[in-house]
Amino acid sequence: MSRVARSLIVFGWYLAGFGMGLVLVPNLLLGIFGLPPTEEVWIRVVGVLVLVIAYFNVRLGREEFLPHARLTVHARVGVLVFFVAFVLAGLAKPILILVGVIDLAGALWTAAALRSHARNATQPLVE
C-alpha cells in the first residue's frame, strides 16, 4: 500500500467515526462544538453524507486512485477556510476550527505523499 493510499484510508476511517457520531449521538457532538442540540433529522443526514465521503476515501485509497487523492487535498484545505469564516462571522465557536485543522493536517499528509510518489514512482498509481 502506498503512502498516498494510507493517508486516504486513515482519513476515511476518521471521517467514518465522525459520521457515525453525527448519526448516533449528534447532540453530543453538537455540544462539543458549542452548537445547540436538535431533534431535527438534518444533523443525522449530514452524518450520512460524512459516511459517504468516508466510504469514498477508504475505497478509493484501497484502489490507489490518484485523481481522487489530488482532489481531496483541495477539498480538505477548503474545509478549514470555511470553518474559519464561520467562526469569524459569529456562526460557530472557535472549537470548530479544530476540525478544520484536522482536515488540513490530513490534506498536508496526502499532499506530501503525492509529492513523494511523483518523485519516486516506478509504477504509477491508477490515473
Order of helices and strands: HHHHH
Instruction: Give the radius of gyration.
Output: 16 Å
Mean of all residue-level pLDDT scores: 93
Helicity, as a percent range: over 70%
Number of helices: 5
Number of distinct beta strands:
0
Shape: globular
Mind summarizing the main beta sheet? Answer: none
Classify the beta-strand content into a percent band: under 5%
Low-pLDDT segments, ≥5 res: none
List keywords for this structure.
single chain, 127 residues, mainly alpha, 5 helices, 0% strand, globular
How is this structure best described in words?
- The chain is an all-alpha fold.
- 77% of the residues lie in helices and 0% in strands.
- The protein is built from five helices and no strands.
- The chain is globular and about 50 Å long.
Quick recap of the structure?
Helices cover 77% and strands 0% of the residues. It is built from 5 helices and no strands.
Give the topology.
Elements: H1 3-24, H2 26-32, H3 42-62, H4 66-88, H5 96-120
